[in-house]
Each structure stands twice: as C-alpha cells, then as structure tokens.
Amino acid sequence: MTTATNRSSSSSLSSFVVTPPTIPSLPVVGVDSLFPVHRIYCVGRNYADHALEMGGDPSREPPFFFTKPADAIVPSNNNNASSGVTTVVPYPLATSDLHHEIELVIAIGQEGTNISVEDSENHIYGYAVGVDLTRRDLQTIAKKASRPWDSAKAFDHSAPISSIVPKSGFKPGKNNGNDDNDGDNNQSDCSEARIWLSVNGQERQNGKLSQMTWKIPEIVSILSRQFHLQPGDLIFTGTPAGVGPLQKGDLVQGGVDGLEASVEFTIVTSS
Question: Can you give the pTM of this predicted structure?
Fold first, then answer.
C-alpha cells in the first residue's frame, strides 16, 4: 500500500503538469535566510474584552482554532528600510466591511505533537506581529448560519505580517527601545508587553499580551493535540478589543512592545 509519505517522495522525482507555487516565506531579523511558512493557525476570541465586543462569552472556555492559507501572508516592507517599497494590501473582493485585528504571532521551529506546556518553549523559533484581516460581513453571515469562517478569514492577502524575530530578540519587558529593562524574562511569559494598532495615526487597539485568556505555552500545547505542528507553522494568538473597519487609502501600523519588528501597510483599490 502506498503511504502519504511515499506518494510525496515519488512525486518529487517527477515534473509537474502546472508550475508549482513559490514557497511563502518571511524575512528573519538579523538573519540572511528566510522563514518558510507551512501553515497558519489562528486562535479565536483569546482576549476577554474582544470576546465581549463580538458578543461572545469571555469565560475561559477551551480555545478554538481556524486557519488561513500560507500564501495569505503579506510581508511588511517597513522592516527593511533600505527597500524603499511601501507594503500594500488590496481591498478584498466580496466585502464592504473589512476589519483589522492586531495579533502576536508565534513561529514554530521544531515539530511535535502532544507537546507539554512545559516543553512548548523548545518548539518556538520566534515571534512576529500580524494583522488578521477579516471580512466581517461574511463572518456575520457565517455565524448566523452556523457555517465555517473560511470566506471571512482565509482570503487572499488576509495576513499582513512583520519579519520574524528569533525568540532571543523578543524582550517583552522592553518598551520598543525606550525602556531600560534588560528583558531577561521568559519570552512565553509576556509580562505586561503592550500590543497596539493605529489607522492613519489614530490608535484603534491598545492591549496587553498578559490579557490573553490562553497563554503562549498553553496555545502551543493545546494546538499540538489537534495537529502535528511543523517547522514553518505560524500561530496568530488572538486580538484585543478595538477591532474596526478599514477603508481604501488607510495606513495601518501595529506592533508589540519589545518586539524588534512591526507591521505597516496601506489598503489600496483592488486591481
């Protein structure tokens, strides 16, 4: 019997009938090599205040996950000042209510299943900050009909994201270089690090990573009981309150205190 592994191995020896897609990847701060993106997982309603603003129950119920395709990422060029290129995100099709959700993103560097909370840190390569763009009108329709959220969450260009910062470079106690804290704290214990997003210079979201219902080690552990985590996986960890609409021409900027990368992009008319 041919196994899935055998099928994959044999196909690699053959030519393809169509051109295979490019492997999605992200720059890594301080490293010349790229971080290949395998899968994108997202945690739903992981901040109590956001759960409340969306009409949900903020209690510590088991976390639920949804996914985006790997090629939904849009690398933010603002982390490469020499590029001179502004990151743009086309306003998506089939919506008139596009929303922003700023999130800390975990980058997995070591595979595993049934990972313990205590061992989660060993499976993390680094962190980034990303925006879970959402077609809110389609999500509302899906919720009312008890349907999956794929059309609302997993569309093209729905995951603008910063460069990856190796975990040794994430210092949650440090305020973007303006704090004398040496940052010698456990990266997965995010202390009181601030997570924020602004639109056209006006603050929209401002929370703390410590407000997450499920903390980073718990997220990795619980997700690994449902999926075999692989190097290259990204995990969006949820968003604080303040989500809201975006219009064409809006400049979106976001970050996490102590993370040496940020996300910035402009919404443009679809071509």
Answer: 0.89
Residues 6+ apart with CB under 8 A from 271: 90
Task: Note whether 102 and 240 are within 8 A (CB).
Answer: yes
> At 27, is the secondary structure helix, strand, or coil?
strand
Question: Going residue by residue through the chain (271 aa), what tens digit of pLDDT does each one get?
Answer: 444 544 444 455 679 999 999 999 999 999 999 999 999 999 988 987 766 666 666 676 788 999 999 999 999 987 665 566 789 999 999 999 999 999 999 999 999 999 999 999 999 999 999 999 999 999 999 999 999 999 999 999 999 999 999 999 998 755 554 444 444 445 555 667 999 999 999 999 999 999 999 999 999 999 999 999 999 999 999 999 999 999 999 999 999 999 999 999 999 998 7
User: 194-225: string of b/e by CB count within 10 Å (b at 16+)?
Assistant: bbbbbbeeeebbebbbebbbbbbbbbbbbbbe
Residue 269, both tokens: 């008319």
For residue 59, give the DSSP letter: S
Query: Please, what is the Cα angle at 99 between 230 and 246, to 5 degrees?
Result: 130
